[in-house]
Write a sequence for this structure.
């Protein structure tokens, strides 16, 4: 029988549940960290996990991601980007679950963390010192997010979200190196930045030990897609 609006029966088809997971990155003490919650209940009780949960029938994916993030960690009002959809059949022991992951890069000092009733703790972890045996497939999601974060440094102004309005080039270089997990050649890095026309000199100097560093700011008039700052060309060793 041909299906119509009158005879359509949704119960004829199996329906997977949909969740959202939110990977939040930030710099703490100069190191790249990720925000995680320790689960209180089955499944994976006592295991650390990426913040997230089930999508309600009356909310969009992004609404669900923002709600779950704030409920589980207290973090709110952040710009998030959709990362990927993870749907391996056995990824959740409760039922067939498809998860849409988001990620964001934030200034950690601007957010106060709070623990929800559904978790034991919420904490920042260095990305190279993660807890063992993360819940579900969250290690896979996290590694995917780290790779995406690093790749976006090449063609977006993502790293500038971690900076004050005025900053020195050495500080920006340290942020790139920490996220990338490798050292960059100083002369090449500075030259590529200046050639990209992303920055403007404020005319101010940073008071510090040794030679004062010039302070720069990001050109607000630049559209993010208008440039390609190729950090790979600023690596310490020439791969060519």
């Amino acid at each position: 029988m041909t299906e119509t609006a009158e005879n359509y029966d949704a119960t004829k088809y199996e329906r997977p549940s949909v969740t959202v997971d939110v990977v939040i990155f930030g710099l703490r003490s100069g190191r790249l960290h990720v925000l995680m919650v320790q689960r209180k209940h089955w499944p994976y009780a006592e295991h650390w996990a990426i913040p997230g949960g089930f999508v309600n029938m009356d909310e969009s994916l992004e609404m669900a991601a923002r709600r779950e993030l704030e409920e589980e960690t207290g973090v709110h009002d952040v710009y998030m980007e959709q990362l990927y959809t993870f749907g391996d059949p056995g990824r959740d022991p409760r039922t067939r679950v498809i998860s849409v992951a988001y990620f964001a890069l934030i200034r950690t000092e601007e957010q106060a963390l709070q623990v929800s009733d559904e978790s034991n703790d919420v904490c920042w972890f260095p990305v190279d010192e993660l807890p063992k045996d993360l819940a579900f497939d969250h290690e896979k999601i996290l590694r995917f997010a780290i790779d995406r974060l690093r790749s976006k440094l090449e063609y977006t102004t993502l790293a500038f979200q971690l900076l004050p309005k005025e900053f020195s080039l050495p500080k920006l270089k340290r942020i790139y190196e920490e996220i990338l997990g490798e050292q960059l050649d100083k002369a090449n890095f500075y030259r590529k930045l200046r050639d990209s026309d992303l920055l403007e000199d404020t005319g101010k100097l940073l008071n510090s030990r040794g030679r004062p560093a010039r302070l720069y700011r990001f050109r607000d008039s630049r559209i993010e897609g208008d440039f390609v700052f190729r950090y790979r060309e600023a690596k310490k060793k020439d791969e060519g």
Q: What stands out?
A: The helical segments are 61-73, 138-152, 169-180, 186-196. Residues 158-234 form a domain with the Arc Repressor Mutant, subunit A fold (CATH 1.10.10.10).
